[in-house]
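User: I'm new to structure prediction. If I give you an amino acid sequence, what do you actually give back? Let's try with this one:
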Amino acid sequence: MEHFARRMDMGGSGVVVRDDFGMGIATVARHFLHAHSVLNMEAEACRVGILLGIHHGWTNIDIESDYVILVAALKNEEEDLSDIFTVKQIVLLIDLRTLLVIVPLIMFG
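Assistant: Good question. You get back a string of structure tokens that encode the predicted 3D arrangement of the chain. For your 109 residues, that looks like this:
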């Protein structure tokens, strides 16, 4: 979940972790004073979710995101993302891709 207010350059991201039965087991919410785009907020939410999973030792993580461009970029092995993303977004995507290597099984839904 993400929120972005372009006029104020502020945003936020939230993560809800559920178990196999759909019960909530963890939540995280963060406020960003210098948000650059909806993509950045969605990527930050994915990043926080993956880091939370790594911290808890979870080896099977299912990330749900409705931001198709982000999911496609994370699934794509192509390195040239300059046509679509800004430098800050590319750095964040590279960070996310690095985290994806650490966790054995991450699925995107």
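You can read the tokens as a compact description of the fold. Here is one thing that stands out. The chain has a mean pLDDT of 76.
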